[in-house]
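Posting for a labmate who doesn't have an account.
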Amino acid sequence: MTQTARHGSAHLNKIAQVTAVFWIMKICATTLGETAGDLLSMTLNVGYGASTVILLGVFLASVVAQLKAGRYHPALYWTVILTTSTAGTTMSDFMDRTLGLGYAKGALILASCLALVLLAWRLVEQSLSVSTITTIRAELFYWMAILVSNTLGTALGDYLADDSGLGFLGGAALIGGLLGLVLLAYRFTKLDRVLLFWVAFVLTRPFGATFGDLLTKPIANGGLNFGTIGSSLVLGGILVVFVVYTVRAERRVEQEVL
């Protein structure tokens, strides 16, 4: 799904253009967030509560740097996306497991929170479009919505993989099918593009969550048993390659403008 073309304002360029590459990087980042969050909380045995505090601190540091930046920096932007995903993973696990809310109730609470964030954003800014973010306030809403949606995606992905009976592969297949329907709706219908963007954005998180579980969990549990460390390294390498590609593409565009 492609949003509007590049903008002239330096502030507008702080947000990544929504292209096919954007969605590939989004899925990769959210899957890495799932495996990296599990690496800290489970493999390293830090715990869900402590991991959430640590990763929320990393997220806040990265988003402050993003807000202070004068223009779009791909590495910084995708760092914030990644930190929302890692923090969202442990936040969801803390709610669902430590607090005992369960996946279904946790997902329902988080879906309600996301709806409230988007409603507040719409009422205050009169738009939910990511191509018209022209103020710090709008950008704050943007990152808040992303953090909540990534947290929601973890709970929803865990629900599909564990409680629904679909398993990791079945959950990933279901979400992948829904994403395919969104793409078809974008190509062949006149449904609101902003609505389709946010539906796709939310769905890519549980897709990443279930795909991350598929990579890391033991074969006996329906996974591929790559482990959190191995999966995180592979996904991190893929994401770095795409970030480098994006940086070079940005530089080529800047040279053409000059």
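Reply:
Got it, the structure tokens are right above this. The chain has a mean pLDDT of 83.
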